[in-house]
Amino acid sequence: MVAIIDYGLGNLASVQKALSFLKIDNKITANHDEIKNSDFILLPGVGSFAHGMQNLKEKGLDVLLTDEVIGKKKKFLGICLGMQLIAETGTEPFVSPGLGWIKGTVNKIETTNLRIPHMGWNTIETVNQSYLTEFNQKDFYFIHSYHFVPDNQRMIAAYVNYETNLVAAIQHDNIFATQFHPEKSQTAGLALLKHYFESC
Amino acid sequence: MLKTRVIPILTFNGIGLVKTKQFSNPRMVGNPVQAARVYNQRGVDELVFIDIYASEQNRKINLKLVSEVIKECYMPVAIGGGISTIDDITNLLKIGADKVVIKTKALTDPDFIKKAVSIFGSQCITISVDAIAHHNNYKIYNRQGIDLSLNEFTNSMMACEVGELIVNSVDNDGMMNGYNFELINTVLKNTNLPVIAVGGGGEMAHYKQLMTETKIEAVGSSSIFHFTQFTPRDIKNELKQINVPVRL
Fold it and tell me: How far is residue A148's CA from residue A151's CA, in Å, rounded to a whole number?
């Protein structure tokens, strides 16, 4: 069972709809026992970094998720803010600590000519071997103003170009996370989710 | 490379889909759930669904119906109509909306927009900017009697850090005679936010003209899909010919 973490932020319904369409057993939950008994943890989320961390803490989920993902090495999928929150440090709207599973910082996207937020369909370029490898050069839906800069480049699974190369996905051990929204990326997105859950 | 989005705009009157001309004379054009299903099958980039009479008629949007529309969609969906409380937004997000579209409340209470952005994030809040030509300039069209220029309104929304603007030309709405480039360029010059240009698309040439006359990266349309045989994909095929990046 996939535990879709309910921390009061984000498009839980969209994520659930995609998993249910793929007939993947899932539950939206903040219940600690249910999360402990799950096979996968999926952290979705849209909203601000500091707000996201605060909500996780209020439900004791920061400690629980760290136990499960770092301690017990449970499979983890982070989407959008759910990817950013695994960083050591966020800057939205002020500098604050994240879950700290992956060393690095989440910074505001800086462009000279392009519009912020980075919103719409954009092509990913895969690097290193990952769940995304066969999705090289596919279009996925992005909607974000901040981006994750991990210290270790070997953890980067894909880039997306928006004036500069931004990190589109990260993979390290049992952690896989995408800045884009596979659950909103139609055929390509559903294919990625299917591929991920089948190969795990 | 970021793709130029082609977005069907579904306008709803509380009962069925309608299409207006210059924001008047709504004409019934079909069933919203069926329309959403067809657009999902056609792989459109995004969908916008707005109950255009909710604020005026002091109604809340029909959540049950919106939920059925969203169920058909595996692409991003923006929903608008009569949004005036934080709970309204929460309720829409809960049933799977990705963004909400707000107009009337943004005109009467910009502080509400600021609050919504702080709770849901910029990316969630799209503002509908309905502009009408007035003495060599543009005003914000509304039925509440609020006197606001286009730039005053977009500046105020930028200050609230909203995520996106849907810019609709009231004069061109439903006329199918081409987009208002001057209006679109005025907004693009004034803001760094993503903008969806709406109002006037009626034939393939109009979309090519819009792309050559402006630097717009998203276009919304309605009449052309209701009243001609053209689909969003036809428009994207056409745009590809002039090297506009599209997702096919």
Answer: 10
ipTM attached to this prediction? 0.94
CA B153, CA B162: separation in Å to the nearest integer?
12
Task: Dump pLDDT digits (tens) for B106-133.
Answer: 999 999 999 999 888 899 999 999 999 9
User: Residues of A with CB below 8 A from B123's CB?
Assistant: 46, 117, 119, 143-145
Is A80 marked active-site? yes
Question: How far, in Å, CA of B201 to CA of B227, rounded?
Answer: 11
Q: With beta carbons less than 8 A apart as the criterion, state whether B207 and B198 touch.
A: no
Provide residues of B within 8 Å CB-CB of chain A.
1-3, 5, 40, 43, 45-46, 70-71, 74-76, 93-98, 118-124, 163-164, 192-195, 217-218, 247
Considering the domain A2-199 in this protein, what is its CATH number? Answer: 3.40.50.880
What phi, psi does B203 have (nearest 5°)?
A: -150, 165
User: Domains of chain B by range and CATH?
Assistant: 5-241 (3.20.20.70)
Interatomic CA distance for residues A148 and A82, integer angstroms: 11
pLDDT, tens digit (0-9, with 9 covering 90-100), for A26-40: 999 999 999 999 999
pLDDT tens for residues B64-107? 999 999 999 999 999 999 999 999 999 999 898 999 999 999 99
